[in-house]
Fold these 2 entries.
Entry 1:
Amino acid sequence: MSTPTTTPAPTATLLDSRSDPRTPRTQWTPLMITAGAIEETFRALEDGDPDVRGRREALIVHPQAPAGVRGLAPATQVALGVLLPGEQTVTTRDNTTGLGMCLAGEGVLAVGERTMRLTQQDVWTKPTMSLETIRNEGTAPYHYIRYSNAALLESISAFYEDYGGRAAADAEPAPTSGARAKDLAPAIPLGEDGSQLLPYEHLIDPDYVEDLPLHFPWSAVGQHLSGVLGLTTGYTGRPLYVLYNPATGRLNGTTPSFFATITAVGGRFDGGTHRHMSSAINYHFAGRGYSIVEGERFDWGPGDLMLSAPGWAAHAHRIGEEGARILTVQDHPLHTSTGSLVWQEDIENGEILALGAQAGFETNLATFGSR
């Protein structure tokens, strides 16, 4: 029998907090990916070969992303994908949560037990560890953009993926007694402040909320946009709706990590300058306007994708005369869940709050009537 070898442990670096009490925060720069660059990427993907998962995808990686972290924002990975007519991906699953939007063509997405037929501007969600297969049953290429928390998981070395397929997942579950492990070991109160001791059974059998794959068809979403189209400059909020997933509860998310919103403006709208610790990525699928980020102007039009609000960057958006339709994805729920969603609505004189841990801001919606 061979003798196991030991590898010397790396030497840790010790920092004296008296000389360096806080780690400096590096703010990522705004980044614009034009509609032309996106179309060129789609053409290159169509001309190339699928990867080992049967996918034709390209990741959009910010130049400030650390080595091994493939994100457009620190916690957000963004991919452009194509499936040619008749193609189907390999069935996979991973521990990311995410969402996507159909940009062109039609796709059929099987996530867990649900199958969705997606057309242009439809949005869908993918829960963690759900088996996923995409196919193109149409006659034109299927184009999509997808967002996931893979960048965050890569940054903490926690990304997991396998190719087990449906056979393993559909195997007959092991018989159970019907009792939950946590019920066999009650919590032990320690004091009047709510502190408790939890036995191990609580760690391996936590309460959970079922997160189902969701489909937000544009044909239905578009019918309800009149509630925000009438909001004009002077409204202190934003003319948008959240694509809400009830499984996220108070996080007000589309997934546990992200919200996706649809901004709909009928004409010119000037939003106030504000900032928040969550990063915002805008896909402009109709209309024109510009954004001011840390004093720099970025003009955008249909098909442009932009990291428009790196965390804590002061920014404002101006919508042109023709109005606009914008899909915005922010890692807002992730920050809410960790108590780190620091937000300032009025960059000049407004207070700074931790949303979800403190009471939030008010708007003047009453002046404009209810939605």
Note: The radius of gyration is 23 Å.
Entry 2:
Amino acid sequence: MIRLAVRVRREDADVVLAELLELAPGGVEETDLAGGVIEYAVYGAPGELPDLPDVQAAAGGALVEVVTTEVADDWADRWRQFHRPIEIGGRLYVRPPWEPAHDDLMDLVIDPGQAFGTGAHHTTRLCLELLADEDVPDAAGVMDLGCGSGVLAIAAAKLGWGPVAGVDHELESVRATAENAEANGVTVTVERFDLIRGGPIPTAPLVLANLLRPLLLCVARAGFTAGDAPHTLIASGLLTHEADEIAAAFARHGLHETDRRTSAEWAALVLRRP
């Protein structure tokens, strides 16, 4: 079995990931490396992996390095060990399907084999913690921007928000969110949408945006459908030194910071309209 890893600069990661998923629609493994670098890896037998020139072209000017290594035959079992359950705020228990449920916590099952984003990354955990702390008003809709595997949207539905919707540029993520929502017994309306080129952003009273800085700035520039900013926006995917810039970008839409949390080098913001 071969592991093909592409290392790119963090600021270009979302754009590169979109291109890589066209070549490897089954999903990629994502790892933070030192020095502001993100590594995306895919696994396969010789001849099953994307061609190296195509991978290099997909990464473009963001490419730092391409590394191929042989992995042991038990890589699938070790990959499962990498995905462990996490507890969020004493309320949610996010787990892969091969782990048992927690008797005392709200169960959320995410299949990491379908798309990236199972809840373990600092940015996703921060979003989930802030979401779990929100009071749920009556008939309060949610929009998950860049929904990935659907973990944030599904958590919102489990916590009582509704209706819940999500958008993502990648068709594989749209499918994964729909499948994971069905597996969890909740309803999430999900469709394909390009946050960079799609125009005004679909909105709801609560918007979840676990996106890297460039995409968050795209959302702030594009504005929201019918000029109607959400009442609350939870933004993550940020390095701590980027948080002030993102807060200022959304302040132009009347959204002002009311909470900030950090984990390692990452930050998440709660932005609200008065």
Note: The two ends are 55 Å apart (CA to CA).
